[in-house]
Amino acid sequence: MKPAIVLIGTNGQVGRELHRMLPRVGEVTPLDRTRLDLTQPEEIRRAIRTFHPAFIVNAAAYTAVDKAESEESVARAINVEAPAVMAEEANKIGAALIHFSTDYVFDGLKTSPYDEDDPANPLNVYGRTKLEGERAIQASGAAHLILRTAWVYATEGKNFLLTILRLATQREELRIVRDQIGAPTLAGELARAATNILAQISGGDGGPFSLADVGGIYHMTAAGETSWCDFASAILQEAAAIPAACPWFAAATSGLPLIARRIIPITTNDYPTPARRPAYSVLSNVRLNRTFSLHLPDWRTQLHSVFVNPPAKTH
Ligand SMILES: NC(=O)c1ccc[n+]([C@@H]2O[C@H](COP(=O)([O-])OP(=O)(O)OC[C@H]3O[C@@H](n4cnc5c(N)ncnc54)[C@H](OP(=O)(O)O)[C@@H]3O)[C@@H](O)[C@H]2O)c1
Questions:
Q1: Do 26 and 4 contact (CB within 8 A), yes or no?
Q2: pLDDT tens for each residue of 212-227
Q3: N or C: which end of the chain has fewer CB within 10 A?
């Protein structure tokens, strides 16, 4: 029998893709904000007790990095208190919690990819709350996987890909930061990898693992690295060759022609934002590769794939 899975945050970029893929490994109960408000701890407890899942997959988070600077208590409720309650309830019923975290737990002072044991030192409220969420889960005693990822985008939602395409219909020149380096990661690839791990630990694919042996933190991002500026250039390069009938692209550009002709590299100092961001937040996926034999494609291949082979629209 397939294990019961409660999927929280089913309308987010990663949550939507998980909703599509997780039924391969379990009986999924999808919970969006209308069915479960994460600022209400009692609702979280009630949902977990009602559905009594083997796995709780939490794809929800407060992800508005700049807004978090002025909304710390909401960010903390969703990124710290909610996962803490999920972990506490998971522990009570022997369920495992699969949770996502972020490259923004690091300060960006390294110049080579961060591994899971590198000391965290977040520069902003979002990163601090995500780190506190990780620590609450670790302290709960629940079986867990914390999958840290970065620079997530999809063909729906709020993300850099869609912002660049929209701006490219409005301006001839785009000024984009060149001195922040990371790994843009497609939500669909994250969902695919997380689903693969669940199959391995739930025995669905005859996998050899129990979560007791492999639980903990894993970095999970696209391979390779780039700057926001070079990511933007790659987006425009792909967009120049896109088939006219691609529905997500038509929605992203409101059917308007792209008029952007130049990307001007600027520095972080030229583009002040409420939240500070790490200059370098590339994550090493070595632990993920070794433990689960998972290799995510490099960021450029992932980006190309959304243009030539767009994901199916979900719900
Ligand atoms: N986005 C990134 O660049 C990035 C980078 C690194 C790590 N991550 C991590 O990856 C995970 C997935 O991120 P994502 O990009 O898929 O996020 P996303 O698209 O912003 O989705 C977040 C989801 O959380 C839900 N949510 C927020 N507050 C809620 C509340 N009070 N009650 C119930 N649901 C609530 C949202 O619901 P609504 O749809 O109703 O608003 C949304 O569906 C998160 O853990 C995030 O921290 C993301």
A1: yes
A2: 788 999 999 999 999 9
A3: N
Structure tokens at 287: 């632990």
Active site (annotated) includes residue 126: yes
Does ligand 1 have an atom closer than 6 angstroms to the CB of 13? yes
Kindly state if the Cβ of 15 falls inside 6 Å of ligand 1.
yes
Q: How far apart are CA 80 and CA 85, in angstroms?
A: 9
293: which 2 tokens? 């034999």
The residue written with tokens 């009602």 in the block is 50
Tens-digit pLDDT profile for residues 153-207: 999 999 999 999 999 999 999 999 999 999 999 999 999 999 999 999 987 555 5
3-state class percentages of the chain: helix first, strand second, coil last, to nearest 5: 45, 15, 40
Residue 21 CA to residue 24 CA, distance in Å, equals 6
Structure tokens, 180: 């922040």
CA of 172 to the centre of ligand 1 (A): 31
Round the average pLDDT of the chain to a whole number and report it.
Answer: 94
Strand partners, 240: none
Q: Which residue puts its alpha carbon closest to atom 42 of ligand 1? A: 12
> What distance in Å separates the CA atoms of residue 93 and residue 50, rounded to the nearest whole number?
11
Q: Other C-beta atoms within 10 Å of 214: how many?
A: 18
Structure tokens of 283? 């994550």
- Partnered with residue 57 across adjacent β-strands are 7, 98
For residue 7, give the 3-state DSSP assignment: strand
**Ligand 1 pocket mutation pick from 6, 8, 33, 145 by most atoms within 8 angstroms of CB:** 33
Q: Is the CB of 37 under 6 A from ligand 1?
A: yes
Residue 105 has pLDDT above 80, yes or no: yes
Averaged pLDDT, 105-132 = 98
